[in-house]
Write a structure and sequence with these properties.
The chain has about 220 residues and is an alpha/beta fold. It contains 9 helices and 6 strands, in the order E-H-H-H-H-H-E-H-E-H-E-H-E-E-H. The protein has helices spanning about 20-30, 40-45, 50-60, 65-80, 90-100, 115-125, 145-155, 170-180, 210-219; strands at about 5-10, 105-110, 130-135, 165, 180-185, 200. The chain has a 6-stranded parallel sheet with strand order 3-2-1-4-5-6, sandwiched between helices. Helix 1 packs across helix 4. The relative contact order is 0.18.
Length: about 220
């Protein structure tokens, strides 16, 4: 293996799940008679951990057993809605195959629950191509804190400076930068202007290759 690693967020990076999360949250909030707007979703749902989302929309602190129960309810809705629609952002599998053929270390570092990650990895049959898998339950501090990326680098045995992160949200890009890693912004849910400055941006994985990854890490 070489000394470089590529670490992927999941929602909005491997798969364009945000429309399905939005559908799940709409049904969930309608049940609890909570008002929401698309602007609320853009600023307080996409890329955010459920503790932030629930606290913001319920307009009071949500934590502990209550958070766990509400999170489980909403995420079960998401998995039901999404399980027959799982597909990657275009050309992701081709890009991942090229990375593995060139001996890159690869990982997933998501704020989503383990059950969501399991659904997507197994539906796409890419679990065996990842050397580190971290979900919400595997960290104490969530993005924009860098814990999930630093822990991923440690699992891979790669210096953070030799890692390239693929992220789609403000908090996720910030987490990667806070970890001392280069970041590629995946423009599935946000524009360049809505993200912190990244080293590179893509709309899909036809716009990046192994040589570009090497160039970005070395820059």
């Amino acid at each position: 293996m070489n000394k470089y690693a590529v670490i992927f967020d999941m929602d909005g990076v491997i798969c364009h799940t945000n429309p399905y999360h939005a559908k799940a949250f709409e049904a969930f909030f309608d049940k609890y008679k909570i008002d929401y707007t698309e602007k609320d979703f853009e600023e307080h749902m996409y890329g955010k951990h459920n503790s932030h989302i629930m606290t913001y929309f319920f307009k009071r602190p949500i934590h502990g057993e209550e958070l766990l129960a509400l999170e489980n309810e909403k995420e079960a809705l998401f998995r039901t809605i999404y399980k027959d629609a799982v597909e990657t952002i275009p050309y992701y599998k081709t890009f991942l195959k090229d990375l593995k053929e060139n001996d890159f270390h690869t990982a997933v570092a998501t704020s989503a629950p383990q059950a969501n990650m399991d659904l997507i990895l197994d539906q796409l049959d890419i679990r065996s191509q990842m050397e580190s898998l971290l979900a919400s339950e595997n960290v104490n501090l969530h993005k924009p804190h860098p814990e999930v990326y630093l822990k991923s680098a440690s699992n891979l045995g790669v210096d953070p400076a030799q890692c390239l992160v693929f992220e789609d949200s403000f908090s996720g890009v910030t987490a990667g930068l806070n970890a001392g890693m280069k970041v590629v912004g995946v423009l599935s849910s946000h524009t360049k202007a809505q993200l912190p400055p990244c080293s590179f941006y893509i709309d899909d994985y036809s716009q990046v290759d192994v040589e570009k990854v090497r160039q970005l890490i070395r820059s």
